Structure formats: C-alpha cells, structure tokens
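S.,

As promised, the cytidine-5'-monophosphate run. Input:
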Amino acid sequence: MLKGKTILIGITAGIAAYKICELIRMYKREGANVRVMVTPNALHLVTVLTLESLSQNEVFVDNFEIKEYKPEHISLCDEADIMVIAPATANTISKIANGICDNLLTTTVCAFNKPVIIAPAMNTNMWKNQFVQENVAKLEKSGYHIINPESGFLACGTTGEGRLCALEKIYDKTIDILNKNKILDGKKIVISAGGTIEKIDPVRYISNFSSGKMGTALADAAYAMGADVTLVSTFDINKPYNVVKVESAVDMEKAITPFNNNVDCIIMAAAVADYRVKNYAEQKMKKTSDDEIEIQLVKNPDILKGLASSANTTKIVGFCAESENLLENAKVKIKNKGCDFLIANDISRKDIGFSSDENEVYILDNKLNIEHLDKSSKSEIAYKILEKIFE
Ligand code: C5P
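Predicted complex:
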C-alpha cells in the first residue's frame, strides 16, 4: 500500500519513542521508504543503530550537514511524501506552532509543505496545560493532522490522558492521506472475513483455521482506495470503517444479504462452515460413559451462491481454497456459484494462504479468463484484486 512513498518520521523525546520502532516496521512491511530523524534528546531513548537497522536508511540528528548540495532539511522535505511526528512532546509541538527552528526536526517541519501527522504523548497535566492545548488547536487549525493521545497507564506512574495513541491509528491515517489515488471513491463494498463459528453448546464450537487476514487486507485496501467499506467479520477488530461482528454462517448471511443490490460489490473472503450443528445444546454437554458420541450436522446456506443468484447490480466475488487441482476446481466452482469473480488459492502450500501474511492467487472471471498474481503480501494482493474487479 505504500510502495513508492517516502515517510519521514520525526521522533521526539517522549518515553513512547521506543514504540516507533514498530511503526517503522509497519510502514516498511507495506513497501514504504522510511527516513527517520530524531531530536538530540530522543537519542537518550532510542539508538541510531536500532533506527537505522529498522528503516534501512541513515538516521538524521544534527542540523545542516550538506547532502547532495542541499541542506539536509530541504533534501528530506523534497524526498518525503508525508511527515509523521511521533511521539510529539509538548516542547516540540509548541515550537512547531510558533515557527521555532532550533533543531533539524523543527527546522524540517517548518519547511515541509506536505501533510504532517502529529501524535502527541506526554504526562496528563502537560497535555492539559492551557498553552499546549492552544498550540495543538493552532496546529490543527492550520491543517496538521493531530491524533490525540489516549487514556491509560503512563510512564510517570499515573493513569490518565497522554499515552501515545495506538500505532494502528497513525498507520491508518498515513495510508488514508497518502492514497490520493482513490479509484474506489464513491463505491460501496462489503467484505466478509474470518472463519465462522458453529456452536455445539455454550462452551464448544466447530470452526476452521481462517485468520481473516485476506478479508481484512481487502477491507483495508478498499478503504484506502476511497471505498465506503463494511467488513463482516468473525473477529472483533477496531478499524476506521464499519465492522459488523458475526459468529455463525447463518448470522453472516443475515448480515450480508440486505446489502445485495444496494452496494457495488460483495467479496466473500470468509471461510464459511458448510455445516452447522443440528441440535444446539442449551446447556453444556456432559461427558457420558459412551466411547463415541454423534453430533449431527445440517447444511449451512451457501451465502455466495445465494447472493450471486439474486444479484443484479452488485458484483459478487468469491474465494476458493483448494488443496489439489486448484484451477480445475476453481473453474467448476465459479460456474457452480454463479459469481462474477473467483479468487483461487492453494491451501496446501505452507508459505501462503491460511494465517500467512502472504498469498499467491489466480483471479478467474465468469468467462473463465484467468489472471495469476505472483506471491506477495496479502495487502498487495488485495490491491490488485480490487483493481481487477473495478477495472
Ligand atoms: O464451496 P466453498 O466453501 O469451496 O466456496 C468458497 C466460497 O464460498 C468462499 O467465497 C466462501 O466465502 C463462500 N461460501 C459461502 N457460504 C458457504 C460456504 C462458502 O458463502 N456456506
């Protein structure tokens, strides 16, 4: 999602500085070029060696070493698409808000005319300080993207507002701002993810190994591409788009069916159980003296097939996970399901598919045209699938 983008991270001397190591990894995983600069005080909290190893780039601390015949702060401004200051201390926030340029980081922000995300983190009283609040408001009014700190246990031993927001918030905001190429603007998309849970009794269930990663990657990519996204997921997950939590196949069908013919596309990435328990036991089942017991199963609705048979205006996309004869089975399946596209992947391979962060798939359309997507991250695959569907 971040291929070809350069993110300039500015780390100031908040104790949360160590968390930014993980943020660098999150950006790198999505293909971003990450440049890091730290204030001299932040170097007490994180080391240049760690940051250089993670960003795979030189880390900047001091002012005004001339690089390529331009002062550093200007060449970094030219190169970066976005600047992310996290954690941002009261000191740095107040300096930026007042145009003070007394280190490389503050000088760079002053010269930076592209989007800037600021994620403050500090002691509760500092965060509530009138001047800090005025400076934050001033920055927000001028177009800086402020991600407010959260409440929680702080390094100073107190509990209150001031803790650096979840890294996912900074990450999602970055993706959101950088993906100006919103080719799905105005499109409504519903995506299912995860393995359904078919209860046996109040404490037991039948499910499968689906991690929900592919469906979630599709939802993230669709959102980043500008779509109005609803993710119908068997996992509780906090996202900047609409998430509907479901459990069983029957729940999932109920949640998804009303969208048919009211949205542009429904993608069934969930691993829906083909069968559910016939007689759900209201009370926990007791162990008996029998060595064998039987649990009867009944067929679940085939959600994908049902959607495809009644879709007029909605594109219906299914997934096909096979452990043998992938393409032959996929060709039969797309005809049987009647959907517009089928994404086929080979689950016998350990390096892709279930639980993995990577995938390699074939996209079949209803005329049996086949496109192969080479092995890459699930988010990259998600982008390509969406591009293909809305081509
Ligand atoms: O029939 P099979 O399970 O192989 O088909 C997989 C596709 O069908 C996936 O897109 C899955 O989400 C969908 N499916 C469904 N309802 C079921 C079983 C699978 O929508 N009961």
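Residues 115 and 143 are 8 Å apart (CA to CA). The first strand starts at residue 6 and ends at 11.

- D.
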